[in-house]
């Protein structure tokens, strides 16, 4: 497994650090971590990076100078490392492992190859998740209107979705294929407000679980720098991020919901529900996974009910983590087929997304004409609704205008002609879209 390099983060925004990030530890004790664990972490950092400037050790470990000084002093006294550039400024002092240090580090690497930012304790992480709980986030009617601006959706459904987001409970969005369930579910992310602090890693029973994922967590402010200032800076082991959104579909298996232990690097990756803490977890196409919906639903009963999840290390140690997630299940399967009544009661809201009224179908059709640069005509729309849908007995679904019009766009570009809503082109797209027999 490739080591995560936090220096490559793409940062959003330029506002200064805010109170959402914890205060920087001033001593080893304040980190909550064992002294020797941090010594091992620094040894592995020097092992992988070679001679390293003090300023870079601060950046790699995300620990302030006041914490590093006693650790480095101990390492020097034990002849694990040596200093170069003694007469230089603090910023240019560099450290490198001695032969003794390299030999000792080989032993450390047998336990774990993790050499990233110093982790935080499980209790510290749990407290942070509770402080910034997604349940504290409130969705108003105005926020819903702004987030779904230009979205063609019944007002009654909008009201259900807004109320559901305020509940902090799981949501089941169900209906026929093509009705827009996935699009609606993913669009709920626009309603998330406020930021949250995400740690790079969490330590449990001396085992490191890497939690920050650049594919999931979007930083809003730089949480690290190269300053050697000993003042009360924020704790750089945390990153201020937008509330996370994790989307998974047919690839989801039960094993993915457990810790992912790499036997080569000997540290863990957090499962998707932990990465999604303080945000959304969208399970798309429920029922298309290799595991049955019933088994998957049974896995969620305790987390949804008690707001905690239970994970296990490869050593057998079990521990509890917060489950502060709004889970959104999206499925084509009727709720009664997905799970029993006991589980369905744990789903706060069951929201049906069905076929469209003609007025809504028209609005989506016109929106896609504008988006694709195809001149809208009433005659073309009537042909689609009356002739194509009517004669083939196909329901008015949200996905169809987009799919038909994109095929016309593709074909006319290929032919080198202007796109239009002619009966010939619409019929070609329809027959291309629906299979025969």
Automatic annotation (TrEMBL):
Which intervals hold domain AAA+ ATPase? 167-357
What CDD domains does this protein map onto? AAA
- Region of interest (Disordered), ranges: 1-23
Q: Which InterPro entries match?
A: AAA+_ATPase (IPR003593), P-loop_NTPase (IPR027417)
Know the name of this protein? ATPase AAA
């Amino acid at each position: 497994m490739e080591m995560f390099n936090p220096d490559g983060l793409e940062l959003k925004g330029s506002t200064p650090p805010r109170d959402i990030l914890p205060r920087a530890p001033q001593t080893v004790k304040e980190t909550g971590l064992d002294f020797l664990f941090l010594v091992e972490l620094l040894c592995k950092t020097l092992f992988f990076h070679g001679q390293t400037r003090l300023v870079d050790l601060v950046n790699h470990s995300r620990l302030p100078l006041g914490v590093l000084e006693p650790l480095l002093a101990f390492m020097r006294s034990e002849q694990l490392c040596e200093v170069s550039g003694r007469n230089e400024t603090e910023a240019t002092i560099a450290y490198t492992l001695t032969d003794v240090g390299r030999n000792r580090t080989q032993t450390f690497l047998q336990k774990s190859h993790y050499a990233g930012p110093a982790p935080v304790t499980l209790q510290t992480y749990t407290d942070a998740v509770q402080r910034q709980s997604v349940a504290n986030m409130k969705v108003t009617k105005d926020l819903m209107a702004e987030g779904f601006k230009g979205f063609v959706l019944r007002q009654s459904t909008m009201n259900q979705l807004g109320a559901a987001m305020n509940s902090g409970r799981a949501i089941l969005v169900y209906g026929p294929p093509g009705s827009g369930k996935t699009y609606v579910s993913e669009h709920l992310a626009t309603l998330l407000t406020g930021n949250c602090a995400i740690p790079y890693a969490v330590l449990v029973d001396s085992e490191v679980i890497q939690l920050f994922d650049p594919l999931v967590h979007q930083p809003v402010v730089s949480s690290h720098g190269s300053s050697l200032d000993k003042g009360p800076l924020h704790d750089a082991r945390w990153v201020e991020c937008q509330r996370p959104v994790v989307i998974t579909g047919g690839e989801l298996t039960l094993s993915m919901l457990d810790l992912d232990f790499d036997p080569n690097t000997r540290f863990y990756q957090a499962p998707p529900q932990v990465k999604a803490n303080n945000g959304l977890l969208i399970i798309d196409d429920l029922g298309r996974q290799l595991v049955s919906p019933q088994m998957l639903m049974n896995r969620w009963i305790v987390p949804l009910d008690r707001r905690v999840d239970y994970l296990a290390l490869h050593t057998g140690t079990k521990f509890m983590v917060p489950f502060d997630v709004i889970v959104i299940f999206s499925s084509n399967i009727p709720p009664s087929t997905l799970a029993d009544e006991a589980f369905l009661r744990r789903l706060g809201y069951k929201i049906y997304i069905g076929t469209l009224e003609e007025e809504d179908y028209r609005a989506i059709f016109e929106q896609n004409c504008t988006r694709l640069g195809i001149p809208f005509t009433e005659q073309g729309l009537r042909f689609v609704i009356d002739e194509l849908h009517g004669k083939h007995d196909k329901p008015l679904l949200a996905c169809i205008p987009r799919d038909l019009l994109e095929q016309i766009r593709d074909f006319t570009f290929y032919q080198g002609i202007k796109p239009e809503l002619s009966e010939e082109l619409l019929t070609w797209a329809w027959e291309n879209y629906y299979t025969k027999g």
